[in-house]
Design a protein that fits this description.
The protein is mainly beta. The chain contains 1 helix and 13 strands, in the order αβββββββββββββ. It has one domain. 14% of the residues are buried.
Length: 194
């Protein structure tokens, strides 16, 4: 009987030991440094800059610097797309940045959506837009002795909401204003639509 109990204990310990071992699985693939790709363009962080790299036959030919990027730079929803306006091929780069500021009584989450249109042949930025949305959560005291409090939430918006229309024109909207822009191929930039 003692041998059976001893055998069961040893068997349980050995099963437990095998189940605790780390299994060696397939290695995770290394992520590429590019955030978005289209045609021969790659939006990426390189040499401390967020840039659009122009590749030719798989090698970097040139680059357009979008902005300086520090170690904390982490864009989300990065997209590159192309469209044609007046027989000119333009590229639209969009990305979102989120920053959080937190104190004991207040938390602010700032979401900024950036939109830039490029004319790649001349390596020129022809339009840019930014839209900032700040979500504020704040603890507000209801009396002078700070015994009672409530949590209030507010949203603050700055800038314009960007819309690229099917005909290549651009619309910017805010609560109080709406701007319409059209591409001028001679000036190689967006100008106010009349």
């Amino acid at each position: 009987m003692k041998k059976v109990i001893l055998f069961v204990c040893v068997a349980l310990l050995s099963v437990n030991g095998f189940s605790q071992k780390k299994k060696s699985g397939a290695k995770k693939p290394v992520a590429t440094s590019g955030f978005a790709k289209i045609d021969n363009l790659v939006a990426e962080v390189k040499n401390g800059n967020f840039q659009v790299t122009i590749n030719e036959k798989g090698k970097e030919k040139d680059a357009m610097i979008v902005k300086a990027a520090d170690a904390n730079f982490a864009p989300t929803n990065t997209k590159l797309s192309s469209f044609n306006v007046k027989d000119v091929k333009l590229y639209l780069l969009t990305w979102t940045e989120i920053a959080t500021t937190k104190t004991d009584l207040k938390t602010e989450v700032v979401t900024t959506i950036y939109t830039i249109i490029y004319e790649i042949t001349s390596k020129k930025q022809v339009f840019s837009n930014s839209q900032i949305t700040t979500n504020i959560t704040e603890k507000v005291f209801l009396d002078k002795l700070k015994n009672a409090s409530e949590t209030q939430q507010r949203i603050r918006r700055e800038g314009f909401e960007f819309t690229l229309n099917p005909d290549g024109t651009v619309t910017q909207k805010s609560k109080k204003q709406e701007n319409k822009w059209m591409y001028d191929a001679v000036k190689m930039e967006y100008v106010a639509k009349k």
